[in-house]
Design brief:
single chain; 78 residues; alpha+beta; 2 domains; 2 strands; 56% helix; Antitoxin_Phd/YefM; Antitoxin; YefM-like_sf
């Protein structure tokens, strides 16, 4: 290893971009800072949520929906 672990962590946190880890000149892993990982997790979660909503809308039947005035009437809101 050309750099020790502390140097790599500092570099990843400072650069805010992935650092490729090579073994025998082949990419084996990426090291990313916590902020980037958290942003990636939020992105993936939002994507999966949107796919779930899309899937539910595709499978929905007309009877699954009601008109807005009927919905508001059920809430006793006018």
């Amino acid at each position: 290893m050309r750099k020790n672990a502390d140097e790599l962590l500092t570099l990843a946190a400072r650069k805010k971009e992935p650092i490729g880890i090579l073994k025998n000149n082949k990419l084996k892993a990426y090291l990313i800072d916590a902020e980037t990982l958290e942003a990636l997790e939020r992105f993936v979660e939002d994507y999966l949520d949107s796919k779930m909503v899309e899937e539910r809308l595709i499978k929905a039947k007309k009877s699954d929906f009601i008109k807005s005035d009927e919905f508001l009437k059920n809430l006793d809101v006018k």
